[in-house]
Amino acid sequence: MSKVYVFDHPLIQHKLTYIRDKNTGTKEFRELVDEVATLMAFEITRDMPLEEIEIDTPVMKAKTKVLSGKKMAIVPILRAGIGMVDGILKLIPAAKVGHIGLYRDPETLKPVEYYAKLPADVEERDFIIVDPMLATGGSAVEAINSLKTRGAKSIKFMCLIAAPEGVQAIQEAHPDVDIYIAALDEKLNDHGYIVPGLGDAGDRLFGTK
Ligand code: PRP
Ligand code: URA
Description:
The protein has 209 residues and is α/β, with parallel strands linked by helices. The chain has six helices and 13 strands. The chain has helices at residues 10-20, 26-44, 82-89, 138-149, 164-173, 201-206; strands at residues 4-6, 50-56, 61-67, 72-78, 96-97, 99-104, 111-117, 126-130, 133-134, 154-162, 178-184, 187-188, 194-195. The strands form three sheets. Strands 1, 4, 5, 6, 7, 8, 9, 10 and 11 form a nine-stranded mixed β-sheet that branches. A two-stranded antiparallel sheet has the order 2-3. Strands 12-13 form a two-stranded antiparallel sheet. Helix 3 (82-89) links the parallel strand 4 and strand 5 (96-97). Helix 1 (10-20) packs antiparallel against helix 2 and helix 2 crosses helix 3. The longest helix is centred in the N-terminal third of the chain and has 19 residues, at 26-44. It is globular, with a radius of gyration of 18 Å. It starts with a strand and ends with a helix. 38% of the residues are buried. Uracil binds at residues 133, 135, 192-194, 197, 200-202. Belongs to the UPRTase family. Uracil binds at residues 194, 199-201.
């Protein structure tokens, strides 16, 4: 069964409040999503492997630790996932970035894939799929399917706000994929929006609609 981690750090919760607020404009919304993505990246990389090397400090030789060069990839679900990429790359600049394009059919709420481009060495990489919203879970489940079909073996899913329905959908379809969220909200409304949520993440990030 997938584990669910809620990053309830005060800075994340504070910034998320302003992300949710409908009076927050596009520029500030984008900046806050970027900042929260950086803070979440700090938490999600806690288990990154280290190796010991020897260096010369100005005082003496010392054995000390560096990241062991694990290959990582970030995969935003288009469009809204794009808003989280730069914030993560600030901490993991060597990560490759793939893209999965999905939209929710407004009638059926089912995801439709329209684009996929991943790094060539898919099987060797640790993937973090990012999307601000996990609502019905349809998009996330489909994005994970898409990566697995192309050979991905190690996948985490990271989002800002999740509904219980979306968490359950990932857990049922992909019990090997752990879920990292900033807030677990109450439920979905009749239109498949997260309540209380933040509205349409893509529209708020890009100033559309
Ligand atoms: C939003 C959001 C997720 C999806 C979540 O994208 O960014 O990708 O909905 O909903 P689900 O869990 O029910 O699948 P949307 O389809 O609105 O596309 P956009 O990013 O282009 O705005
Ligand atoms: N997609 C969004 O952008 N917001 C929601 O609340 C649900 C899906």
